[in-house]
Amino acid sequence: MTTDCRAAVNHISRLQGQLESLKRKIESESSCEEIVPLALSAAKSFDGLRAKIVQGFVSEMCFSDKDMTAAEKAQFDQLLKLIKS
Asked: What are phi and psi of 2, to 5 degrees?
């Protein structure tokens, strides 16, 4: 397993932990003040995972065969910003 794959799997494990914690809070009928931050944290974590996966795919598929020019690098960075938002 590559380092990138291992990092993605580790990220998924952390996300699963966050979701389990969120589930326990909801099941115990915790207050909204306790539940909402956990839900937002899990959502941001998932967004980060999604961005890393897409970034890896785009890098591998689009830019693996050549060195990027400064303009291409700028476009790639702009694409990543869109993915992360």
From this structure: -70, 165
Q: What is the CATH number of domain 3-84?
A: 1.20.58.1000
Which residue is associated with the tokens 């966050």?
Answer: 18
Is the pTM of the predicted complex or chain greater than 0.90?
no
| Helix-helix angle 3-27:32-63, to 10 degrees | 160
Answer with the residue of higher pLDDT: 79 or 15: 15
Per-residue pLDDT tens for 23-38? 999 999 999 999 999 9
Angle, helices 70-84/32-63, rounded to nearest 10 degrees: 150
Q: What is the mean pLDDT of residues 50-68?
A: 71
Helix intervals (H) in 2-31: 3-27
d(CA 26, CA 14): 19
Domain positions in the chain are 3-84
